Amino acid sequence: MTDFAALLQPDRGQPARTIHVVRPEDYAGWLAAQPARVRTAVTAARVTGKAGNRAILPGEAADDWSMLLLCDEPLESPWRIASLGDGLPEGTYRLAGDGTVGAAGLGWLLAQHRFARYRKPDPVGARILLTPDVAAIDETVRIAAATARVRDLVDTGASDMGPAELETEADALAAAHGATVTVTRGDALATGYPMIHAIGQAAAKDRAPRLIEVEWGDPAHPRIAIVGKGVCFDSGGLNIKPSSGMRLMKKDMGGAAHALALGGLVMQARLRVRLHLLIPAVENAISGNAFRPGDVLATRAGVTVENTNTDAEGRLILGDALTKAGEAAPDLILDFATLTGAARVALGPDLPATFVNDDALAADLFAAAAAVRDPLWRLPLWDGYDDMLRSDIADMVNAPDGGFAGAITAALFLRRFVPAGTPWAHLDTFAWRPAGKPARPKGGEAYGLRAAYQLLKGRYA
Known about the structure:
Blueprint: E1 8-10, E2 17-22, H1 27-32, H2 36-44, E3 54-58, E4 65-70, H3 82-85, E5 91-95, H4 104-110, E6 127-131, H5 137-155, H6 163-177, E7 180-184, H7 186-192, H8 194-200, E8 210-216, E9 223-228, E10 230-234, H9 243-246, H10 254-268, E11 274-284, E12 296-298, E13 304-306, H11 314-326, E14 332-337, H12 341-347, E15 353-356, H13 359-371, E16 377-378, E17 396-397, H14 406-415, E18 424-428, E19 432-433, E20 443-444, H15 449-460
Parallel strand pairs: 1-6, 2-4, 2-5, 5-6, 9-11, 9-14, 10-11, 13-17, 14-18, 15-16
Antiparallel strand pairs: 3-4, 7-8, 8-11, 12-13, 15-18, 19-20
Helix pairs in contact: 4-5, 5-10, 6-10, 7-8, 8-11, 10-15, 11-14, 13-15
């Protein structure tokens, strides 16, 4: 993991090169106030005043220079100077003016992170940013590390990131914070969490299904549950995916990655909660004992589910995990899941489809998302579609025929496993960035992580 703490340092007046971040509408006035050598350099660099323009500005001495960046991102944006985080020479920098970094520190840090498990990155020196806001450094570093953790877990190939490896991640997280881990597998899983067992039973023995639980905090504090979908690879089961649909299915444990990262942030901040982190971890494989279309599955909640599609497995394992979470009467439940293609068709990769059963929780969550510029988009838990889950032979089906409102019907399925009256938010996230942007490379991505953490800080700090 990148040593983010080394890249964001207190500004105590040490030598540093200056970065001038200028808004396009302010550029003409800024340029007019510069000495002739700067105006000449800007002209030579073909700076036109548009966002994204940049230039090296000469100083008075031969080895003195500073950087100009034209940027239309607001001060609150984490990505305001992200394009410079990996585009400048090794060295120490500060922002012009009073040096305030603010949210932009996150993008600076993440721009220097590389996923290096399978390929040695090009050697580059550290680019250190100085900030006068010393109190914010640790928090920015923690959020950068949590975001990078999600990216790295999702980017890891499925052969190296199965249910056992998710358990190892949970063990390490618990050990770092004095939490306890409980893992249910084998016969106990089959009887206690029959849907998790059914979906994972076709996998090889070393990739056997399990429910991983981490608990931390004072039992006297409000209990919160964070649930993450941990399908470590999704073949689609007997309703097998085409090759194009299977290509990225290593990322189907992206919900679990978000849950682990968020749980880590909660514990690092020592929020006043009793944390219950649950990860149902499976591989949706194909073998002679794979669950079948038409099978009727028992559930921990005691209802029955007619399986209409083995590729709608994520909601099944989450159903048992949500049931377990609700048994302890939590103050709220958050779940993260790479659940439906329908959410991506509707909203694309950047916006997690967000379903909330409590308007007060929704208001707090979306205010938190806006505050940290980690966007979410609310979709309705539309009661009128609940009948789509009707089965002729069981209490419900897992996936209605026809494909209408796929993200909504998946959320309605999950809602049936959440205790009435328990505030709950479900984030149907993509966990993948299909095209790179500054500090946000193509690959695994954390969507909604910062919003959820901001929500929890606001309620339980």
